[in-house]
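Summary of Year 1 activities. Much of the first year was spent building the evaluation harness for sequence design. The harness presents a backbone, in tokenized form, and records the residue chosen at every position. We chose the following record to illustrate the format because it has been used consistently in internal testing since the harness was completed.
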């Protein structure tokens, strides 16, 4: 018989809360660095946002020779033309920067490209994205991200308590900002596919966070007097095996896209790989530890009340009639 896969056979005892301040410092550094990179260096916007011309072509005489095609297009004076393969070996995606002027200038650039490449190519799709459309896509993309983050916070708030919503909101915002910072640092093309990856990262991160929060709430009900740091550590350790399994299976799928999906999906794959790592990290070292500072209702740490030095202590209750005296060596209240 097949046995179920168990990554961690025994529940570990890792002190996540002992490391949470280091996690907070690292997260602050990553977030501030990402914002600075975005403001100083910016993003390498694709044609979807900056505007331009997209030509989808297929060679009719065997696999496409991208180097030869790029050599023909480099000296045309229409800006930096990018070519990338996608799908089968004879499919090529040509991206041309937007030309100064009106629609006639864009049509002229398309005809120039077709004339330079010559015969033996079947042009399957030609699309011109104007600057107005690009700016509109940027605005809608930003609004979609903000709406997703707000909806996630509201969902967690209603499912748990508002304190959980604060932790989920901050950890997901952290994942989004650092992903944008990664694209700014590496200058990977930022297009609609990348934006879809960021929204997917937000959903992936909140899924892991909700699982941990659900275990925290369950542990709070089960161990009402347990110190809150120990309670959070216990919840994180109990869900660690599930977290490792989820990360591993998701990473295998994304790695397949990265190596076999071609250039079109490379940006999406890189964003998802980073999102898997940073989303898991934020669930363990941001979302859960934040609960320690914004305590959920009914979870204040209980401290034992000690009598002041020299204060008189109340005498033991006398034994009633018929009650047996305690055995020697035992206190009256001992079992």
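For this record, the design step produced the sequence shown next.
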């Amino acid at each position: 018989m097949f046995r179920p896969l168990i990554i961690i056979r025994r529940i570990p005892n890792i002190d996540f809360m002992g490391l949470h301040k280091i996690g907070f410092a690292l997260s602050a550094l990553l977030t501030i660095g990402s914002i600075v990179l975005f403001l100083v260096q910016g993003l390498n916007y694709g044609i979807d946002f900056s505007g331009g011309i997209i030509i989808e072509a297929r060679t009719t005489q065997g696999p496409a020779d991208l180097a030869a095609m790029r050599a023909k297009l480099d000296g045309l004076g229409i800006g930096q033309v990018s070519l990338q393969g996608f799908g089968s070996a004879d499919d090529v995606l040509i991206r041309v920067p937007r030309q100064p002027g009106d629609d006639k200038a864009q049509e002229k650039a398309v005809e120039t490209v077709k004339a330079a490449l010559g015969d033996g190519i079947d042009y399957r799709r030609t699309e011109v994205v104007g600057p107005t459309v690009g700016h509109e896509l940027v605005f809608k993309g930003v609004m979609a991200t903000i709406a997703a983050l707000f909806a996630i916070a509201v969902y967690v708030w209603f499912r748990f308590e508002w304190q959980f919503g604060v932790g989920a909101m901050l950890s997901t915002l952290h994942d989004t900002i650092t992903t944008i910072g990664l694209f700014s640092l590496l200058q990977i093309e930022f297009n609609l596919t990348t934006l879809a990856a960021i929204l997917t990262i937000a959903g992936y991160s909140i899924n892991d966070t909700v699982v941990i929060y659900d275990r925290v709430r369950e542990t709070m009900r089960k161990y009402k007097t347990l110190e809150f740091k120990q309670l959070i550590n216990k919840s994180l350790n109990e869900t660690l095996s599930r977290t490792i399994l989820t990360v591993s299976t998701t990473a295998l799928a994304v790695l397949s896209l990265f190596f076999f999906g071609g250039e079109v999906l490379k940006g999406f794959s890189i964003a998802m790989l980073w999102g898997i790592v940073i989303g898991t990290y934020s669930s363990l070292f941001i979302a859960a530890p934040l609960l320690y500072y914004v305590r959920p209702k009914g979870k204040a740490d209980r401290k034992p009340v000690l009598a002041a030095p020299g204060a008189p202590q109340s005498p033991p209750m006398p034994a009633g009639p018929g009650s047996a005296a305690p055995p020697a060596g035992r206190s009256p209240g001992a079992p």
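Strands lie at 44-45, 52-59, 82-85, 91-97, 121-129, 189-190. Quantitative recovery figures across the full test set are reported in Table 2.
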